[in-house]
Amino acid sequence: MLTASDVSASLPEVPYAPSSREPIVVLEGVSVQYRVPKERIGTFKEYAIRALQRRLQFMKFLALKDVNLTIYRGEVIGIIGKNGAGKSTMLKVISRVLRPTKGRVALYGKIAPLLELGAGFHPELSGRENVYLNGALLGYNQAEMDEVFEKIVDFAEMRDFIDAPVRTYSSGMYARLGFAVATARVPEILIVDEILSVGDESFQKKSNDLMQSFQRQGTTVLIVSHNLTKIQELCQRVAWLSRGELKMVGDPAEVVQAYRENI
Amino acid sequence: MTSPAKPLYDSAAQAYPALSELKELRHYRFLLFQLIRRDLVARYKRSILGVAWTMLNPLGTMLIMTLVFSNLFKSVESYPVYILSGLIVWNFFSQGTNAAMVGLIWGGSLMQRIYLPRTIFGISAIGTALVNLLIALIPLTLVMLITGMAIPLTVLFLPVSILLLTMFTLGFGLILSALAIYFPDVAEMYQILLTAWMYLTPIIYPEEIIPERFLGLYRSNPMYWMVKLFRLPIYYGRIPTFAEILPALLWAIGFLTIGWLFFTSKSDEYAYRI
Fold it and tell me: Do A136 and B34 touch (CB under 8 A)?
């Protein structure tokens, strides 16, 4: 399905060492069921009355249905599918945000999710303070953050503004700083959810280069995107989700083509 | 398909959420520090007096209460100290529990994106309140000195009082914040409850005015005992007796245990519910 020559073709600068096919993320028969109340019930009174009358009705819907997928150490895997196909839900079970209703998710490495555009920033705090806060949210400690602080400031191109409150930042600055924190340390598993479009063109190029350097250092990357061209360009394998089911996994060109034909 | 190595995370293997939460918290202790720091720093960042407000706030309330009630409660000696020694306890409790509730709802948007030990929001809220409580001891000391009250050695008992109050508040805050996720009305209802609860606790009035027949009712109020644990060593200059410590101890252990078990048993659902 995936040969070494395919990979080196997409990454011409450095020959890619084929991974030892060591699993790093394993999904076994994973299903996620959301319980959506048919009507909004927000008050005690309503809730009590309905519970007594046994009229608490929920629409059960499966966002993921019996998904089996093994992701190997060092690969870049893309996830495609229409809106509502279960892509984000899949990222959520992998990043431990949701526990699957059925099945099992096992991780053999540490996850670093890419927090969207500085989620968790506090507007009144300075950029410096927010860098530490954000790093802590991602599970890093003081020493780990001290080590990479200068690198973050440089990467985000924020040298002059780092001590100003974040509320004075433009949205681009916000996003750049958030991206720089999330990618400051080489992660074992990086999750990228449709946010490669951060910043202007030169920043985008920088983030792409960074992603590739991570990959050379052995990071496993999971990308969710609607940008099929980009997926094909970056990934070694692509998984296609449709209505919560895993339709196809394999060579990017083949899967993307099958997906396109299906629309 | 299974790898021989033990996974770092296994969604199927979590048997005791109450225990694994402790392990996760240990890993995230830097975040705990950062969240407390954020709450302390951000709150007063744009005000000129800054952290001084933490001291001015109880002082202001005390001043108003003294003006309004000191005539009514003439029997109470050094009324400002009496009221302040109860007020700091109440402020800690109401601030801490409210912040735990708001913190978890605020944290909801984060919890849908990344994994965090969910109790961290409640614990950091109580941690912030604890720092505020310690700062509020400064104006209390000043008021004692100004009103000519000697500071009794019995204040050395306060660490025990603070520990029990913190345990109780954390347990209560965890239960409250979990409920607020399921029922948004809880947040509103709680404000009314707090007001009623404050007047049912002898904070601004002396205990002696409580009618004999209601005394039993008063003693079933955990905050009655918590306030006592502070007021005895600060105002009355006496170490609480074992019989006075025991109810507070039981409330503290009981609520913390129940709160922790309840909160962690539900914590996988929060991301689904918010």
Answer: yes
